[in-house]
UniProtKB/TrEMBL annotation:
Enzyme class: isomerase
Listed GO biological process terms: Gram-negative-bacterium-type cell outer membrane assembly; protein folding; protein stabilization
Organism (species): Alloalcanivorax xenomutans
Name listed for the protein in its UniProt record: Chaperone SurA
UniProt entry keywords in alphabetical sequence: Chaperone, Isomerase, Periplasm, Repeat, Rotamase, Signal
Residues annotated as signal peptide: 1-23
Gene3D superfamilies reported in the protein's UniProt record: 3.10.50.40, Porin chaperone SurA, peptide-binding domain
Length: 432
């Protein structure tokens, strides 16, 4: 065989292999949304949709149309991704210790230990590693929201007193509500035509619901609210802790009632009173006298360094070489308690963030807790005493303040989420 023919055959073979390889190329994954400098992949969306479908089937709920479900899930993932990006830029992280503590709490709520709970998750067909990371992401987002939104919320003593003395305040402490919710969203800066279109849509939904349409199915298909995929179910909450717009309407609703559309900055809200019950009037609560040490990260201290420093200080206290009070005076980053040796006084449930309260309630009197993380940094605490206290007026004051803070937090959270969604670069490629 001459050299020219040999070369030609080689080229033909190579081209044939290339054509054959090209014919076998399959798209393994693709981008369904670009969110700022990140992307959401088709495989991620499919996995999340499959999980939602499993929940619907387990609850014997009818599935919404496939395209509606995909759009709802993708929108939720976009909002989640935006918040995770903000949290990463803000240095908000959840370490494995805090994550395991939270998972242990979830397992306990299901009457299991952590190993049993992990096995149950796997038995339901879910990846334990993916479940852990989703819980971690939820905790990160919660801390981001607390840090970003809480600073917008202010409640004065005069507002608390005025609320308690009002007829509405007295009535709201006498009931708990279980509400369903549908939101017809209105974009910021909406034109009069867009506003009228949204109002007409909301009125049409109310008519269908009052005509017998299933609320949960309608919420899944029509709602723009964050609980749409849960059928718009917002769960139980004391009447005083619902957003003011909801509470003032729901206070006169009976089980099964559907509200008129309620206008807010987010759009038009439709409520269903799923159930209501009389609120508790109990004033006897367990209080804890607590000291703590806080170590925070900053521009010069990384998160890992802050955790390591907290562990070092904790070891000194546990070994007995120094008291927690002395460590707090010298090293704690909490300006409110540092000069008092970390003393927080008598703490009533509801005053502290959930991670702090969980550790406080689970730590025996006289013992030092493990190091744990909250949105503020790394802590360890000492419960010095515990007592049952009849709070009477103080309890009502605290409940009223919490209720007003919760109302305003929920209202500000929706505004903040809309702002962050509008500021983000989002390119949806779902239909490509």
């Amino acid at each position: 065989m001459n050299r020219a023919l040999s070369t030609l055959l080689t080229v033909c073979l190579c081209l044939g292999l290339a054509v054959n390889a090209q014919a076998q190329v399959r798209i393994l994954d693709r981008i369904v949304a670009v969110v700022n400098d990140g992307a959401i992949m088709e495989s991620e969306l499919q996995s999340r949709v499959a999980g939602i479908v499993g929940q619907f089937e387990a609850d014997n709920r009818p599935l919404p149309p496939a395209q509606v479900l995909r759009e709802q899930v993708l929108d939720r993932m976009i909002i989640e991704r935006i918040q995770l990006q903000l949290a990463e830029r803000g240095g908000i992280r959840v370490d494995d210790g805090s994550l395991n503590q939270a998972l242990t709490g979830i397992a306990g709520q299901n009457n299991m230990d952590l190993e049993q709970f992990a096995n149950a998750v796997r038995a339901d067909g879910y990846s334990w590693a993916e479940f852990r990371e989703q819980v971690r992401n939820d905790m990160v987002i919660s801390r981001l929201q607390q840090r970003s939104v809480s600073s917008r919320v202010r409640v004065t003593d005069r507002e608390v007193d005025r609320f308690l003395s009002s007829d509405l305040g007295r009535r709201m402490f006498a009931a708990d509500f279980h509400l369903g919710h549908i939101l017809v969203q209105v974009p910021s800066g909406a034109s009069p035509e867009q506003l009228e279109q949204a109002r007409n849509k909301a009125n049409g939904i109310v008519q269908r619901l009052r005509g017998g349409a299933d609320f949960a199915e309608t919420a899944v298909e029509q709602s723009d609210g964050p609980q749409a995929l849960e059928g718009g179910d917002l769960g139980w909450r004391p009447a005083a802790q619902w957003p003011t717009l909801f509470a003032e309407t729901a206070i006169d609703m009976q089980s099964g009632d559907i509200s008129e559309p309620l206008r807010s900055g987010a759009g038009f809200h439709i409520l269903k009173m799923i159930e209501r019950r009389g609120g508790g009037g109990e004033h006897v609560v367990t209080q804890y006298r607590v000291r703590h040490v806080l170590v925070q990260s900053d521009a010069l201290t990384t998160d890992n360094q802050a955790r390591a420093e907290a562990q070092r200080l904790h070891q000194q206290v546990v070994s007995g070489s120094v008291s927690l009070a002395d460590v707090a005076r010298e090293h704690s980053d909490d300006p409110g308690s540092r000069n008092q040796g970390g003393e927080l006084g008598w703490v009533t449930p509801g005053q502290m963030v959930p991670e702090f309260e969980q550790m406080m309630e689970s730590t025996p009197v006289g013992q030092v807790s493990p190091v744990f993380q909250t949105q503020f940094g790394y802590h360890f605490l000492l419960v010095e005493e515990q007592r049952e206290a009849d709070m009477s007026d103080e309890f009502r004051q605290m409940r009223a303040r919490q209720a007003l803070q919760k109302q305003r937090f929920d209202e500000e959270l929706q505004t903040w989420l809309q702002e962050k969604r509008a500021e983000a670069y989002v390119d949806i490629r779902l239909d490509q």
